Fold this sequence. Notes:
The protein has 223 residues and is α+β, with helices and mostly antiparallel strands. Helices cover 35% and strands 25% of the residues. The protein contains 7 helices and 9 strands. It has helices spanning 2-37, 46-51, 119-126, 144-148, 181-188, 194-199, 209-218, and strands at residues 54-64, 70-79, 92-97, 110-116, 129-131, 138-140, 157-163, 166-169, 176-179. Strands 1, 2, 3, 4, 5, 6, 7, 8 and 9 form a 9-stranded mixed beta sheet that branches. Strand 1 and strand 2 (70-79) form a beta hairpin. The chain starts with a helix and ends in a 5-residue tail after the last helix.
Amino acid sequence: xxxxxxxxxxxxxxxxxxxxxxxxxxxxxxxxxxxxxxxxxxxxxxxxxxxxxxxxxxxxxxxxxxxxxxxxxxxxxxxxxxxxxxxxxxxxxxxxxxxxxxxxxxxxxxxxxxxxxxxxxxxxxxxxxxxxxxxxxxxxxxxxxxxxxxxxxxxxxxxxxxxxxxxxxxxxxxxxxxxxxxxxxxxxxxxxxxxxxxxxxxxxxxxxxxxxxxxxxxxxxxx
Length: 223
């Protein structure tokens, strides 16, 4: 019996370590994606990020299955603290379901970045499950001069994609984003919901410090 207990404990520890490794990788890849597209030619200019209340990053979303346009991604949500107007806070783990997009999905790995531009959009996303285009209005993100001058209160979320190094606005209407509660529990070591994380009830994990620090460096103020 004691041997079985020891084996069970060792197995649980191993699985926990694997889960943590996957979370660390997800956060690190999300940090890399943002670093590669913020304030770069044809990327997201800082002026647009300054207007955002939250940002969602989904690195390496791939088509699932042969002949069917189903994509499923795991990413990170980071919002501004306070009344969505302060510095960037601790991350929340999120999922992306693009099964409604069908043949629009390519066969290669795609990075997605979603900018939440309104309080309504942030409120909807923080509920834990939102369908773009119906629960919250979504539009392909603008670039260049259009991005710098963007101001449309009717748009809750701007969506972008990056495939093979090419970055552009993406049509994600119909896709769903949702909270990854199990991953949050693993990351913070306790049951915690998105609202608690955004309020600042938990500290920024060490593994996410580089991501949050980068956002605070490139976009310290909400405009």
